[in-house]
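Changelog note: in this version the structure field was regenerated for every chain. One regenerated record is shown below for reference.
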Amino acid sequence: MGEFEIKQARILSLLKTHRLDALLLKQVSSFAWATCGVSSHVNIASSMGEASLLITDSDRFLLTNNIEATRLKEETRLKDQGWEFRVVHWYEQTNEIKKLITGLRVGSDFSSFQFADLRDEMAHLRADLTPDEGNRFRELGKLCAAAMEDTAHSIVPGQTEHEIAGVLASTAESRGVQAIVNLIAVDERVFTHRHPLPTAKKLKNYAMLVLCGRKFGLVCSITRFVHFGEIPAEVKEKAYAVARVDARLIRATRPGRRLDEIFNGAVNAYAEVGFPDEWRLHHQGGIAGYEPRERLATPDRKEVVLVGQAYAWNPSITGTKSEDTILVGTDSNEVITAIPEWPTYAVTVDNVEMARPTILEKL
């Protein structure tokens, strides 16, 4: 059974479980998942696409407007997948959906008083990756890592955060990767903001670069730091400490482990490295997929790690952070955003040595 057939079977099973007749998918992430990577967005800032899917046990409808139909028909494999296009003028799309769902019990991937709310269930489905999705994730990880590496080596003191963000966006987009999260902080802003939207502040010594890159609908996350001049001892200490927490998280992310267990292990790791309260200042990451995080790890999350899933952990200690995207394998985990020539720490967890990135120092 191929990827598309696997997903259709999972949708029908979901409908049966919830005693529904149809599933309506509007989110960009769900559309990409159900179509094996096709993009439905126009506005990158919107979570809702310009095309919707309606699936029943006997039909697969694709609803879109006259603006998008030609591209979707000619430049994607949607017709080969068997979707029945229902194309209307851009001002009539809601009416067409109403016609198709009349008399049906419908679930959706968005909140609506009309439909059963299946947002959580869809997040679970999107996170349960097929082998084909794993291969696409690997390709995306390499592209994001290459974009980050090129950016890190090209920035220079005097550039503004806006300019650095522009470089990161360019190196990603030139590889066919959308920079859907592009955060840049320099110098003191690295220490004051976990989510630093770029500003006109100019780089002197220290820069944090954060990228969530999207391709095939999938999203990889990666963070790296660059320092011009000798790195202060306090920053080195924090960078090594957060690398140890990250290594603990990656090592713990194995099939059968629960998210709450992994999270609580990270809390203990923060204490062990001498920063017991830093975990409270930002989330630690979680399951990746067609959203930057399909599920965040929290003290009460009971989801179990599955082979083939992607995770992006991002522990942080004020002024430092460690973030890569991994795939969970049968025997070990694979860091798919690793940068081969990037400086790393050798961190040992459970007698296993792991390489975690440190700060790129430019003297």
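Spot check on this record: The domain at 3-127 is CATH 3.40.350.10 (Creatine Amidinohydrolase; Chain A, domain 1). The CA atoms of residues 70 and 316 lie 45 Å apart.
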